[in-house]
Design a protein that fits this description.
Structural class: mainly alpha
Oligomer: single chain
Number of strands: 0
Radius of gyration: 19 Å
CATH class of one domain: Mainly Alpha
Largest sheet: none
Order of helices and strands: HHHHHHHHHHH
CATH topology of one domain: Tetracycline Repressor, domain 2
Shape: elongated
Low-confidence stretches: 1-7, 9-20
Helix content: over 70%
Amino acid sequence: MLYNYSMATAKKISTLKPHTVSTKSGSHPTRDKLLAATVQLLATNLPQNITAQMVLELSGISRGSLYYHFDDVSELLEVALVQSFAALVDKSLVKFAQILENARNREDMLSELTKVTDATQKKSLRAIRFQRARLIVFGEDNPRLAAALACEQQRLTDAITDLIREAQNRGWMFKGVDSRSAAVLIQAYTLGMIVDDIVNEQMNQEDWTALIHRLIQQVF
């Protein structure tokens, strides 16, 4: 049963393709190089600071080819941002699927969930939390980007919801807890650490970890 559910989850992940904001979608070597270069630049630069020239120099692609595959640099950046987020979503889905795959009872499941949670709460992941928050802000006044991000976020929340329902069906999680609300809560306390990231006097990491462990035990 564990194996079958894990395989079903993996299949679901593979068939839910990342949403695209590009009207000229589809894989092409030149397009892929432009996106790869942009994703690489996003790792060390804010989107608004990335220019077409920077992308062209890093990718080795001509300016004409850039505008053949994308309407403008803004669209290229949007597609790259969504592609980066989609990759994070896929990694998260695999980690959550492994929780049920590795568990044999409620104690095992909570232990696995705690491990995944601990891995996302590290101070070293500050940049990723800011990147996620930045994406939300960018999508506020950009309907095209917002639609693409919404699709990826829905994909993540739906998958976590399915996993929670499966755990509830096995009697490993409290059935009185709404599965979708629980899925949102798990993501909320992960991203929520950004509140502490921006202050000078930060909380003790061990205290925060202990609190999240207690929440997992008592809520789920």
